[in-house]
Amino acid sequence: MSKFSLFGRFTVQEGERDTMVDILLEAAESMKNLEECEIYLVNISENEPNSVYVYEVWSNENAHQASLTLEATQNLIRRAKPLITGMERISTLETRGGKGI
Predict the structure, then answer these.
(1) CB atoms near residue 39 (< 10 Å)
(2) If I label 5, which of 27, 82, 92, 98 is the partner at 20 to 30 A Cα–Cα?
(3) Is 100 helix (H, G, I), strand (E, B) or coil?
(4) Cα gap 75→96, rounded to integer Å
């Protein structure tokens, strides 16, 4: 059982972290309809007030890429873009298993 996983960080404008979290939680909600998206977690660190971390697990990389073309995803991206000052893909991972998968 091999899955495609991403761990990334969004850096946002001063004071916009909560707005970005809300947008990403909407994205997580929309992913509930996609079987291929197995995990979509939105995280913050109190030590980084302008950062939001996202951890995703997908059935495969193609499913992740396809999700980026969905109308709902595109609308959320348009809303988030003005807030984002940087994006970093910390790691692309191959999930082998464990609790939650």
Answers:
(1) 15
(2) 82
(3) coil
(4) 32
